[in-house]
């Protein structure tokens, strides 16, 4: 049917509709009606009675209801032939060498310079082709960059750059809430980044597997992704590095958005793999200062409200908050400077001996020492605690015993190689993921020596896992790792805090009170019960050393009932202070009120990241784990809200 024939028919049959219908309303009506009809595929017996009310509501049409019915009956026979899929057609035919029309154009949200005192109007600098990763695959994009004629600041769709400092747009400056820039040619949607990050949280999926999962579904089996005309060497595959940076940027943007700040990244101060460490460290320092997002969580599964005795007859209520502390052997490489070496260096400078190991992060994960100690100890023999310098071209000194020990050490880790065993130590049911040591593109095994070194270091100190001291050894050749991470978990399962222990769980290694009191800040009106395996050692240690017990005047330290069975009855201090049966508030008519196994359940989940985090930089490791904990807590609290036996759920006011 020709257009003039359709107009004549409309004027003849429905003159009122012909005289009142706007072209834009007609176009919108036909476009949406054609799409709905194609999706319905004739399955509705009375289409007009269902579709027309939907069209009026969705399009906010001012046409009366009867005129909408007239328009439907006039156009329904044209809908099938007039239906098109614009997105698919642009994807298939838009981006061609002679007609470069990408699926999306991305531009910066401002037209005037944000840094000049007198804002200049921005000029178009260039247009770059790229790829956008989304939950439905890879899309071609046109990236429009602008430049200020006054200060030469370059403006990209997600940030502006001046003096190699990238400043990402905040919501106040019109930040794109759907997409963000990862690198020059690659963008990603926030919804895909959230999907991948949640997958990592729930299933412990490494960046290697996330990237390959996406590529298998949306790149390897798809033949319609065109190459970039202006950048033919740029491939549509999602690389592990792009995946890693995208997830980091997404999390940092979310953190900055919630804080009302802008993300700033110095692209010249660090290599690309450490580009976002400064921003990550700022987030970690904020968490260390203010506590985690769910630090004040409380619900009926971890807090019990009880009546208090009253002298004047006025009803009073008290509350008990129960938490569990437990450790999990997971961590990162650390400075290998021994206590003897630290004392030696401190004595040479006339300083007091340090209280604990060196906590300065390594510059590279393959280093033995932090930057401060590398210049002073880096040339020494690797057979610690030897004070001799290593021979030129050799990792050991001239002593034959050290040469033989190193040769035996290398032969042992080479001949006794079992990747699964190494990745799975210690613990029997922890997921092992060897892909974190493979190249994302070629699957070639990389970092094998680091895996072997870590395995040997864990074997060396395995006897000290339960809080005791490791068996003494004459020569240590492996690099050092942090000993464990301690979790403070509500008995409902919500993780309140975490802390890295550089030595064993024994209270002589760290001040446990600093960790536990970090959670107590909100508990000024509560009696708190931290179930802890450290209770039997921390309480007498605190008593004997005269350590300030003030922060814990409203706190008791029982051991959970299961573990208390194995404690010696001859230990009078333990029996008097940590026996859970001494506290009737912990029981109700059905037995123990609180679930003391919540800590072990959290450890099972937390330990699943051991393989993924093995070679991570400390800053990236801590940032990832804080993000994973926050996401898991959000997920768990939502599940708690669906339980019928949860009578209240919220945060402790402070």
From TrEMBL:
Every CxC5 like cysteine cluster associated with KDZ domain range: 101-218
Pfam annotation, one family: CxC5
Domain of life (superkingdom): Eukaryota
Positions with biased composition (Basic and acidic residues): 458-468
Domain CxC6 like cysteine cluster associated with KDZ: 324-404
InterPro entries to which the protein is assigned, alphabetical: CxC5, CxC6
Region (Disordered): 452-472
The protein's name: CxC5 like cysteine cluster associated with KDZ domain-containing protein
Organism name: Melampsora larici-populina (strain 98AG31 / pathotype 3-4-7)
